[in-house]
Write a structure and sequence with these properties.
The complex is a heterodimer. By secondary structure, chain A is α+β, with helices and mostly antiparallel strands. Chain A is 38% helix and 16% strand. The chains are: A alpha+beta, B mainly alpha.
């Protein structure tokens, strides 16, 4: 009787693999590495093509969504008395955060409530930099505003390219652990730009201007 | 497309070992080549990290086993090698073939369930301990023991059955 013993298994497996290797040696003339490289290149090309397709769909979807947002009811403004959408954050009383000249560390994600704060400029009957309006937003709405602001073109170059700037500012704060952190400084006068805490600046698009004006028109 | 440093040399040095293990797992040389290629394509972009971590062969072999087990769960490797078919079977019946352990294993191994076959190959061909095999297969050592025992039992029983038939 020829039973398969435990000691037989390993040499039998090796012999089996030897036989298969001998039988198939040279069956595929191409070197394994070359095949792997070719397969990888093919997948990268496919991923690139898919990525372009996804981005195209997203851009079209984004444009459709932007149109929907602009024609639908305005974003909700819960109150203008400084209470946040979830009561979590309030506008600082003064524009203490300067316009950033360097990217701020710890760029805040919108993980809590958000609030849009207006601060006075010159010749507006109040101290420059004083809080004059507060418009709470949900985090989702803040992200929508952020998205729209980031779609603008680059800012104009040179200080003489822009009309006079009164210094009035709108600052979008997002909440992080209940504390307000500035996300973006918006200037609706002068160069009409939005400057983010990460250092990027974009010119306001007509859609973004309409959005911001709509939000800050309520009091 | 720039290849990562040392990756080509690794493939050249280890392709034989990887193909042999993949063949024993899949039971088919072409499937084995596909499996190894798939794994190497996955490892390619991570090569620098894998190499820096030390023992890249162990990483690639683990990836091979995981990819095989995952793909079997998804039934993508649909080319079952039937136990009754022996690719290298002799054209004429050989009454002594049943006594050839290699032929017996070639017939019976593909018929084993996936996890029993994997445990058997990792324990006996790769000579891993039960703990190492359990880590590779993502199961407990108890499961490795039971899977291996069942595989050996099936081979013994089938082998005994074949030889009994021949002796009658």
């Amino acid at each position: 009787m020829n039973y398969l013993r435990e000691d037989d298994v390993e040499p039998a497996l090796r012999a089996l693999a030897d036989r298969a290797e001998l039988r198939n040696r040279g069956a595929n003339g191409e070197d394994l590495f070359d095949r792997v490289a070719r397969l990888r290149q093919r997948r990268r090309t496919l991923h690139t093509a898919l990525g372009v397709a996804v981005m195209t769909v997203a851009a079209v979807g984004g444009a459709v969504e932007a149109r929907k947002l602009s024609t639908s009811a305005p974003l909700s403004v819960l109150s203008s008395n400084g209470a946040g959408a979830n009561g979590a954050i309030r506008c600082p009383g003064r524009l203490t955060a300067p316009d950033p000249v360097r990217p701020a560390p710890g760029y805040p994600p919108a993980n809590g409530g958000a609030v849009l704060c207006r601060y006075a400029g010159v010749d507006q009957g109040q101290r420059v930099g004083q809080l004059t309006g507060s418009y709470p937003l949900t985090a989702a709405h803040a992200r929508t505003v952020e998205t729209e602001l980031r779609q603008g073109p680059p800012p104009p170059r040179g200080v003489h390219s822009c009309p006079n700037d009164s210094g009035q500012r709108l600052v979008l704060y997002t909440g992080r652990n209940g504390n307000p952190e500035p996300l973006v400084w918006i200037s609706m006068v002068g160069c009409r730009v939005a400057t983010f805490a990460d250092g990027h600046t974009f010119r306001l698009t007509p859609l973004a201007e309409r959005r911001i004006s709509g939000l800050t028109a309520r009091s | 497309m720039r290849e990562p440093d040392g990756f080509r040399a690794f493939v050249l040095a280890r392709q034989r070992s990887l193909l042999r293990v993949a063949y024993l797992l899949t039971g088919d040389w072409q499937l084995a080549e596909d499996l190894v290629q798939t794994v190497l394509v996955k490892v390619w972009p991570r090569w620098n990290r894998v190499f820096a971590a030390g023992d890249p062969y162990a990483y690639v072999r683990r990836s091979l086993v995981n990819t095989y087990l995952t793909s079997r769960r998804r039934t993508r490797w649909s080319r079952e090698v039937l136990a009754a078919e022996v690719p290298e079977a002799a054209s004429e019946p050989d009454r002594f073939a049943a006594f050839d352990l290699q032929d017996m294993l070639a017939r019976l191994l593909p018929a084993l369930p996936v996890r029993q076959r994997t445990a058997l190959i990792l324990r006996y061909y790769e000579d891993f301990t039960e703990a190492q095999t359990a880590e590779l297969m993502g199961c407990s050592t108890g499961t490795v023991k039971s899977q291996t025992s069942k595989a050996l039992a099936k081979l013994r029983i089938s082998g005994a059955g074949e030889t009994e038939e021949m002796s009658q």
